[in-house]
Prior knowledge:
This protein has helices at 51-57, 84-98, 110-121, 139-146, 150-165, 175-185, 191-201, 228-236, 279-282, 284-296, and strands at 13-19, 22-28, 35-40, 61-66, 103-108, 126-132, 202-204, 210-212, 241-247, 267-272. It is α/β, with parallel strands linked by helices. The chain has a single domain (9-146, 226-296), classed as Alpha/Beta hydrolase fold, catalytic domain (Rossmann fold). The chain is globular.
Amino acid sequence: xxxxxxxxxxxxxxxxxxxxxxxxxxxxxxxxxxxxxxxxxxxxxxxxxxxxxxxxxxxxxxxxxxxxxxxxxxxxxxxxxxxxxxxxxxxxxxxxxxxxxxxxxxxxxxxxxxxxxxxxxxxxxxxxxxxxxxxxxxxxxxxxxxxxxxxxxxxxxxxxxxxxxxxxxxxxxxxxxxxxxxxxxxxxxxxxxxxxxxxxxxxxxxxxxxxxxxxxxxxxxxxxxxxxxxxxxxxxxxxxxxxxxxxxxxxxxxxxxxxxxxxxxxxxxxxxxxxxxxxxxxxxxxxxxxxxxxxxx
Length: 297
């Protein structure tokens, strides 16, 4: 029997683990004898959004891709409470459960923030780290938020949560209609990419319509303090080589220009042209070239 070619490999196996009494989902791309690599998606996304990256890297790595709590096929948090430390807890639990440490991690947006936080808490467990726009809100936004009194932030949070409690998730009549909404969100996507992301990102309702799998409560900005100095101290604990990736046309702040990159011991920055916030979707080949060069060093 012939060995299947790289692009002919059938998709990954689905598995589950438990963290904080939640049943959480992840996919495993096989090759357990290879070095472990974890891919962590961003907010309102899911594990299968990494398929294109995983297919290219699975020959050299044992690729594990979780659905964060409240996303994809993972359970929703009771009470709709989602903080970065709880996401970090879930990742720590998965790494411990599967015995993946030390490992390489690639994270996007929220997943990048989770990756950086995990590596700052457990620097000895991460061998290399790639964070795609994972440094959180731009410094200017954090400064503005720090000037808002705590009681006002809590009041805003309460009003947002109460508003979501009466909000019904939008229903789409077809996969195509949901994919069209995906294209509205990110014009860099091809129709093929949008359909793939949608097929794995929606659930079918009893009436035949479709809704996104993520919990709407993840949209709420929890009233926590974003202490810039504290975050820099955490990032300074990361000892592994770190690649920060930014889309040249993204809303995200440039970490070299705003000074955040200085917090890292061993960080490099790649600005990808003609890419927005979803760099690994918008310019897949450029992203893979930069990542493969970084991992090969």
